[in-house]
Write a structure and sequence with these properties.
The protein is an alpha/beta fold. The protein is 37% helix and 27% strand. The strands form 3 sheets. It has a 6-stranded mixed β-sheet, sandwiched between helices. It has a 5-stranded antiparallel β-sheet with strand order 13-10-12-11-14, with helices on both faces. The protein starts with a strand and ends with a strand.
């Protein structure tokens, strides 16, 4: 069953044209001119119940505009939306009971009162029965370790403490869908890890559907099996994270630290017949680049059995690098590989920088 169903969704905004110079400024005072800009451009996607989906894009790509339409804050220019079976901007009162929302840069807590008082007010807003609220609150407070924060005013909380409280506030009414817009922005690595672990356990225990927008791709790697990538209001990729890595990955790089000095020619002979590339940092440290279609264990067995190795490390392609390359090309389909599993630019780069076997 679908939690979110979006078809040909579009949102246009009117943007004022500013004319240049003093004369233009005076004209703008009396007669303003506008142009239409499509923030979201006829996108379609479906998210089944229980899925954690990453929704990513550069600033201005249309992520937050989409979230605001999915939560009923904005009315679409055209297209169809169904969230939990409701049209968000039409069935507002019934609809909001089934969703939770966290905007990383905006708070749903009252600034000058205690955290627990904010929770009590939200209980009344969502009409949660007292016994159900208490049971749910106790569970969330224990899981996110908020016992010492409940009586503090929100303005006295650190950013990490406030974000944990924001998560509790969005989950008090036990929503089946959770929208997270930049939930880890500005947080340190410890708090980010705590929030990621909490979201994974929430999804596993309650099958809560989560739509996550973020600029931190470590959030995506830790939580999401599926990624929807937006660029200039258009979806340029919708699929699995592993498939994205397989299509755009540049292969793997293995770093070797040898116990004794070596010559690069010796290593090249050991891996002869494989389409790999060696480079040396010094007489003890070398790197081998292995394309995706070549079996890593086959190559390593050639080296490990004949060389005295002190240490080795396998480095996969970084997701940040992959997404950066996709945005440079403007099309996720541009990552099609040649017969050796490389894109043309990757092949040229490797040929120009390291020795091929």
């Amino acid at each position: 069953m679908l939690a979110i169903d979006v078809e040909n969704l579009r949102k246009n905004f009117k943007v004022q044209k500013n004319r240049e110079g003093l004369k233009g400024a005076l004209l703008d005072l009396f007669k303003r001119e506008y142009r239409e800009v499509a923030a979201v451009n006829d996108i379609s996607f479906q998210i089944p119940r229980g899925e954690i989906c990453g929704y990513i894009g550069e600033n201005g790509a249309g992520k937050s505009t989409t979230i605001k339409m999915l939560t009923g804050i904005l009315v679409p220019t055209s297209g169809h939306i169904r969230v939990n079976g409701y049209v968000p901007y039409q069935d507002r009162e019934k609809f909001v009971r089934g969703i939770g929302v966290v905007f990383g840069q905006r708070s749903q807590l009252w600034w000058d009162i205690g955290v627990i008082e904010s929770f009590q007010l939200l209980r009344k807003v969502y009409r949660v029965p007292e016994q159900e609220f208490k049971q749910r609150l106790d569970e969330l407070v224990e899981r996110l370790q908020l016992q010492d924060l409940l009586t503090r005013p929100v303005r006295k909380l650190s950013l990490g403490q406030r974000m944990r409280c924001e998560l509790v506030a969005s989950l008090l009414h036990n929503p089946s869908i959770l929208f997270l817009d930049e939930p880890t922005i500005g947080l340190d690595i410890v708090v980010k890890t705590e929030i990621r672990d909490f979201l994974k356990s929430l999804n596993q225990r309650y099958e809560t559907t989560i739509l996550l927008t973020t600029h931190d791709l470590q959030d995506i790697e830790a939580l999401c099996s599926r990624v929807i990538m937006l660029d200039d209001g258009n979806i340029i990729y919708d699929g699995g994270l592993e498939q994205l890595k397989a299509k755009w990955g540049k292969g793997r790089e293995v770093h070797f630290q040898f116990a004794a000095p070596f010559r690069l020619e010796q290593l090249q002979k050991l891996t002869q017949g494989y389409e790999v590339a060696w480079s040396a940092e010094n007489e003890y440290v070398a790197k081998i680049w292995i394309p995706l279609h070549v079996n890593v264990s086959d190559v390593l067995s050639r080296i490990v059995g004949t060389a005295d190795i002190r240490d080795l490390k396998i480095v996969e392609t970084n997701t940040d690098d992959i997404v950066r390359e996709i945005y440079k090309s403007g099309n996720a389909d541009a990552g099609d590989s040649n017969a050796n599993g490389e894109t043309l630019s990757q092949t040229e780069e490797k040929e120009g920088s390291v020795a091929h076997v």
